[in-house]
Every structure is written in C-alpha cells, then in structure tokens.
Amino acid sequence: MTSRTPGLPRPIAVEWKLDRSNALLAEARRLIPGVTQSLMKRPEMYALGSFPVYLDGGEGALVRDVDGNEYIDYICGLGANTLGHNHPAVVRTIRERLEKGVLHSLPTEIEVTATRALVDLIPGAEMARFFKTGADATSAALRLARHVTGKEKVVTIGYNGWHDQFMFDTPGVPAVLREYTYRMPLMAEADERPLLDLITDKGSEIAAVLLSLPYKRCVSAEFLRVLRETCHAHGVLFVLDEVVTGFRLARGGAQEFYGISADFVCLSKGIAAGMPLSAIAGPREVMSRLAELQVSTTFGGEMLSLEVCKAVLAEYRDTDYIERLAALGKRLREGVNDKAAKNGAPLRVVGYDSIPFFLFADDLATHTRLAAQFVGAMAKRGVLLRRDVSFLCGAHTEAQVDFTIEAAHDALVEMARSGAFEGSPAGARS
Length: 430
What we know:
Blueprint: H1 19-31, E1 55-59, E2 62-65, E3 70-73, H2 88-97, H3 109-121, E4 127-131, H4 134-149, E5 153-157, E6 181-184, H5 192-202, E7 206-211, H6 221-233, E8 237-242, H7 253-258, E9 264-267, E10 278-282, H8 284-287, H9 303-318, H10 321-342, E11 348-350, E12 357-359, H11 364-379, E13 383-384, H12 398-417
Parallel strand pairs: 3-13, 5-6, 5-7, 7-8, 8-9
Antiparallel strand pairs: 1-2, 2-3, 4-10, 9-10, 11-12
Helix pairs in contact: 2-9, 3-9, 5-6, 10-12, 11-12
Protein name: Aminotransferase class III-fold pyridoxal phosphate-dependent enzyme
Cofactor: pyridoxal 5'-phosphate
GO molecular function: pyridoxal phosphate binding; transaminase activity
C-alpha cells in the first residue's frame, strides 16, 4: 500500500480505479429514479466517468470512496457537514442519547432546550419551529408570510427548494402557480434595481421576499439595507433563506455578518452538522402566528437530530469555528487565484471565503465545460470539489488547503496543455 502523509489523501499508486463505483451506478440506474436522492449528488453534476460516484466513509475532512481512494472533501454533504465527518460532538451526542429513543408519542424536553439554544444564537429570534428539510422550512416561511400579510404573491431569489411554489416552471407542477411567484435573479449588480422596482410596483400584492444570497458574488450591506427598507415600506416581509449560509458567514448567519435584521430566517444543513433538521426562527410577533396554521410534521420532534443540533450550536458558539472557516477560505482563494493567474487559466475563486465558488466564465456553457474537466482533474489528485460552489468545514487544515492549491496548479497545467482554455472568455480572470 502506498504510504500517506497524516491528514492528506493516500496517493494513487499506479492507476485510479472506480470499478466498484461504476458497478453500483449501473445497478442504481435500474433501481433508483435519478440514481440518488438529491439532484445535486447525481454523477452528471460532477465529471461523469472521471469522478467517484459512491463514498464509503470519512473522518474529519477526508473521505474514501467504495474503491478505497481517498480525497479531501469540499462537497461536505452539500454544505451540511459543517464540522466534518464523524465530529466528536456529533458522534458522542448520538451515542449518549440513543437509549432515550428516537421519536416519542408526546413532546420531549429537547424540543424546548434545542429551541432555546437556537434563538439564543440567531439575531432577533424569540421563537422557532423545527422541520426536516430546507424546503420544509422555506415552504412554511411563505405560508406564514401569506397569513401574516394577507397577500398571496411572493418573490423568490436563488434556490429555495423543490416544492411546487419554487419550481413552478418544471414538469409536474400546475402552470397556475407561476402566477403567485416572481422569481428574480441577483447574480450581478445590475439585477438589484429591477428587484427593488418590482417591490415598489407590486408590493401591494407581495407577501414576502425570500432571499437566498448568491454565491458568485458578495452583495453589499447597503443593498440589503435598502432592500429591507423597500420591503417594509410596502408591507412586504423580508425573509432570509439561510439554509446554506446559516452558521457559515457568522455564528448568527447573514444577519450578523451584514448587520441587518430579517423578519425571520430559514435554516437547515449546518443547523445539526449533517443530521436531518431545519427550522424557521424570528421575533415572537411574527412567529407566534404559525400556531394559527396547519403546519405540522411528525418528524420535526425527532430527538437525536435535536440533541445534535444543541451540541453543534455549542460548538459554533464556544470555539473559533467561524474564524477558522474564514481564514482557511481566504488562504484557499488567494492560493488558487495566484496559481490560475500564473498559468493564464480563466479561473477565479469568488464569493464568500467559507463558501468558495470556482468560476471559469460568466457564460454558463463555458463554465460548465471547464469546471467539469477541472473537478475531474482534481478528483484524480485526491480533492473533491463541486462544479460551482464548494464548502470549507471545521475539520479542514492548512496542510489540506495547501495540498488543494498545489493540486489546482497541476490540474490547470494539465488542462492548459490539452487546449481546454483556447478560445475561452477571460472574464473570470478580472
């Protein structure tokens, strides 16, 4: 077996094999519609044929696939594994609390204590309700907003989940639902004015703006302040979808990071470091109205996820987790951007340092083509990335980030030699 450096993936000795992954994929195509449970985990979303499909386990920021290959993981459970794999706080809590049961017939104490821990961490929060998925939380948020305001239409920004009101233009969804949702982009500064104008013009019929921050760029605090003021001037609730950004930009999320206040927020992924849990949280004046609605889920009170949530929130609160993410993300961004510039590659790491976006071009087709080649080249060097936004976790180390930077250098050199960048727009280098 090839020797390894502690904390780094074991080098591939001779040939990178994915035989077991490919065999499982063939079987999954016969058994599972879409191969897996999340669109974002489908093999076509990475580099089909040159990227592992199935993982077997992990420790910290390292994972191994079913063929025994090892990688530094920047996919991090699509952002949910904020602390890394098998973090002691998560494993210990599950082992200690499992004997109490998983789901009881009446409420349990952990519903109260986990809620208290959550509202203590989220700015402006006085009450919260738990669900299981991010889409559960965002859907509950819009139902609450419609109830509170008496208005039916909503504005959505970014990806807010797979439920009908968000995906009104996809197969299987009644076409009439598009009449109730304005989907607005916020990928460029030029998108800001049309959004504000829409709220000004249509505010009398809009219940809420549900904002998931873009990952390709950092919006300004001033814009968010103006957006919030515009919403309130027209009786529109300003709701932050922090399913991804929560517990990454700051302990209190985007509200704390930007110094703004939302009417309430939606949370998931990092709320329990990989255990299935989501929530909405906000001031009592708004949140208390949720009791008047048919918003109910059996598994919202599942005890292990709530126990882990409480333990994980303590990790965020009592350690330098947030500062480490920011520092490691900055190191990664500056290192990769330096290698790309020196190699004349049209790659730029942009966005928030804890949520790095590897951008090759503003043109989607060009970016997708180059990003697929890049993540494939990185995988065979022991690094797992997504084709757009990736994630730092609390288990990453400086040595792993430096390894990633050098792997990016080698991958970009390989791509340049193959002619991958010829004719590609250089916009991402600016």
